[in-house]
Amino acid sequence: MANSAPLKFHVPEPEVRPGGTPDFSNVVIPEAGSVERPPVDAEPESIRKLAFSIIRVLNRDGEAVGPWAGSLTDEELTAGLRHMMTLRAFDARMQMAQRQGKTSFYMQHLGEEAVSTAFRKALAKGDMNFPTYRQAGLLIADGYPMVDMMNQIFSNERDPLRGRQLPVMYSSREHGFFTISGNLATQFVQAVGWAMASAISKDTRIAAAWIGDGSTAESDFHSALVFASTYKAPIILNVVNNQWAISTFQGIARGGSGTFAARGIGFGIPSLRVDGNDFLAVHAVAKWAAERARSNLGPTLIEYVTYRAGAHSTSDDPSAYRPKTESDAWPLGDPILRLKNHLILRGIWSDERHKQAEAEVMDSVIAAQKEAEGHGTLHSGGKPSVRDIFEGLYEEMPPHLRRQRQQAGV
Amino acid sequence: MPRKTMIEAIRDGLDVMMERDKRVVVYGEDVGYFGGVFRCTAGLQAKYGKERCFDAPINESGIVGTAIGMAAYGLRPCVEIQFADYMYPAYDQLTQEASRLRYRSAGDFTCPLVVRMPTGGGIFGGQTHSQSPEALFTHVAGLKVVVPSNPVDAKGLLIAAIEDPDPVIILEPKRLYNGPFDGHHDRPVTSWSKHELGEVPDGHYVVPLGKALIRRPGAAVTVLAYGTMVHVALAAAEETGIDAEVIDLRTLVPLDLDTIVESVKKTGRCVVIHEATMTSGYGAELVTLVQENCFYHLEAPVARVAGWDTPYPHAQEWDYFPGPARVGRALIETMEA
């Protein structure tokens, strides 16, 4: 035998565990403005390196630099800041409401606010997102009423989903927000189908699929890439790499490939990595991908490099599996702070205005919460009807459900 | 009227709907250029173009997953899973997604989707080309489940399914594709051209979902069957001389309970048969419903005849398949009980 050494079984481990000193030295952060912006019709082979770099616009001083800068006006930027602040305030109040027993469950976006709020502004009316549970910024940035989100979270008498769905699994066709499943990755391939349908129908609308770093390991992720690639579907395939899938670090899903974006290369899908905490970069890259989709150039895969600063959900305690200070050590900073500093440098914002905006935003969230609580919370006040258990499963209720509804006495 | 095989009837149904409704798209493995391994989609790509009928990658979760997205968009996808045995990768998409879009979004999104798949044995397909997984679908809230037993129903049920606003699974008994099969594998094969149910009307017609049909009226015992087993039941009644009332369920969900109850109350006896494995099969549901609704009319225990609780064997296919001899025995025992 040429080699009789025993085989070794490999299980990837994060750099640091609780008690250790956070270390992100392995995350290579290119300088802002250093990554090229290819034409949207560039050959996928010619832009492979974009899958291994990080597109960034805002530099350490808060300046917008490089070829990806300039996709947003002053008004759009201040609106974007307000959307992120609203999402953060919304999260804080709903996190607290869960602790107060007003709902069973909540999932916050802390640290990831730029991804969904900036992305929404790169889409047009009629485009369809297939989101996960951590893209509520798509709704907030599109003006969906916060009180309706809260009615859903509280499962009250005004819950648009009639108490049937877990909190935060919103649905709004009108706002281009597909009903969230709660299962992982299943919707990634459905989004491709929606995009295929749009192309079959000679429509102009495009789709956007969303998935987390952890669930890219699901076979539905692979299915989506196969179909998107084969049929050149008009879609943006979004991977939000927030480093953690509940307690599992991203290396368990990523395995031996350098990045999640690199998964797209084998399919011939242009694949880019972007600084997910950089509002300007997220928007610029999303806009580039949307233009590709709308010009019949096919799918684009985008990996948003970010960090889940909060717990996975209200049922999770991250201190059990990662250092408590890891969030502070994250090298891409806080998305709100970074955009705020940029706007101040730009001369269109100030600390005073920021403080004032924070107060206004919190007031609007509290007012919405007050209104929603007036319609009930999970265990008190107005509730969805027991009839809602049986209704709306099929367009027409079949006889066996009618019998069961009678048995239930409703 | 020229008679059609079940394959030709299904193709005709797809053709009629693709002609009438631009939203109908048809795809699956080998479905496009070639027209499907059973030829159900032959000619459709040439007639309607690659955008309406096309080949899919070998990826069942992708086929059903994309079809769900298309249905949510507003198209009417009618996809093929090459064999029901291949549907398991798509099971998650069917059970947790297609079935629930309307419910979980309170009608904001719906899923008018049809998934066709050849089911059952009788062609020496072995473990992976012979399964009857209907109970895995009937157990899922939000799906409709259809099993045709002849060309006329196959076309009419297919059209009803495509026009239905909710997801419908159609299990097509592959042994019936080319002719009625009564389980006598050692006799010459008969063709639909010699059977009145091969007389498929032209154009658009609907066999409504949720309506059973009495194939053979009788007074002695009620036989509940669907798909291939309808023909086996008819043969068993003939051969035993027992005046059985054979009900072809046609749709398993929603079920036509009224027709079943009326018949069993009349005959006082009931035999439930299917080709799928016995334990936790759809027959268990049927027996329970008969017990709940007809107990005081029953003169004998309700009997079940089904496939054995093993994988579908290859060489021993005819020892596995619940043919007319096994069904006939159950009829005699039920009459003697």
From TrEMBL, chain A:
Function: The branched-chain alpha-keto dehydrogenase complex catalyzes the overall conversion of alpha-keto acids to acyl-CoA and CO(2). It contains multiple copies of three enzymatic components: branched-chain alpha-keto acid decarboxylase (E1), lipoamide acyltransferase (E2) and lipoamide dehydrogenase (E3).
DNA damage recorded as keyword: no
InterPro entries listed in its UniProt record: Alpha-ketoacid_DH_E1_comp, DH_E1, Oxoisoval_DH_suAlpha_N_dom, THDP-binding
Keywords assigned: Oxidoreductase, Thiamine pyrophosphate
Region (Disordered), start-end ranges: 1-22
One term of GO molecular function: branched-chain 2-oxo acid dehydrogenase activity
Organism encoding this protein: Mesorhizobium denitrificans
Protein name as annotated: 2-oxoisovalerate dehydrogenase subunit alpha
Limits of the 2-oxoisovalerate dehydrogenase E1 alpha subunit N-terminal domain: 6-45
EC number: 1.2.4.4
A Gene Ontology biological process term: branched-chain amino acid catabolic process
Reactions performed catalytically: N(6)-[(R)-lipoyl]-L-lysyl-[protein] + 3-methyl-2-oxobutanoate + H(+) = N(6)-[(R)-S(8)-2-methylpropanoyldihydrolipoyl]-L-lysyl-[protein] + CO2
Family as reported in the entry's similarity comment: Belongs to the BCKDHA family.
Annotated ranges, domain Dehydrogenase E1 component: 83-378
Required cofactor(s): thiamine diphosphate
From TrEMBL, chain B:
Enzyme class: oxidoreductase
Pfam families: Transket_pyr (PF02779), Transketolase_C (PF02780)
Keyword Nucleotide-binding included in the entry's annotation: no
Cofactor(s) required for function per UniProt: thiamine diphosphate
Domain Transketolase-like pyrimidine-binding positions: 4-179
NAD found in the keyword field: no
Keywords, comma-separated and alphabetical: Oxidoreductase
Stored InterPro entries: THDP-binding, Transketo_C/PFOR_II, Transketolase-like_Pyr-bd, Transketolase_C
Gene Ontology terms describing biological process: branched-chain amino acid catabolic process; response to nutrient
The EC number(s) this enzyme carries: 1.2.4.4
GO molecular function: branched-chain 2-oxo acid dehydrogenase activity
Gene3D superfamilies: 3.40.50.920, 3.40.50.970
UniProt name for this protein: 3-methyl-2-oxobutanoate dehydrogenase (2-methylpropanoyl-transferring)
Phylogenetic classification of the source organism: Bacteria, Pseudomonadati, Pseudomonadota, Alphaproteobacteria, Hyphomicrobiales
